[in-house]
Design a protein that fits this description.
By secondary structure, this protein is of the alpha+beta class. About 45% of the residues lie in helices and about 15% in strands. Helix 3 links the parallel strand 1 and strand 2 (about 85-90).
Amino acid sequence: MPDMNDGMVKRVRSELSDVLRPWQDRYPALEIHAQATIGGAGRQLVDASYDAALVVVGRRTRRAAVGAHIGPVTQALLHHAVAPVAVVPHD
């Protein structure tokens, strides 16, 4: 199965590069450290916050009458991250 795992790693790295490329092109001075991990996103990002100056997460803009309506990953970060957290709304 090593060949299958190697192929999966290459595919994931390629897909991650494709997702990040527009942001790298838009903000060339920004230093980006891409990492793919296995496990829950909240726990992974909280762990990563120990070495971060800032953790930035997105939040879909919802047209609800009350509340910010953040998801479980953002909530985990806001409660447990060591670094400051920026929550950026987007469509």
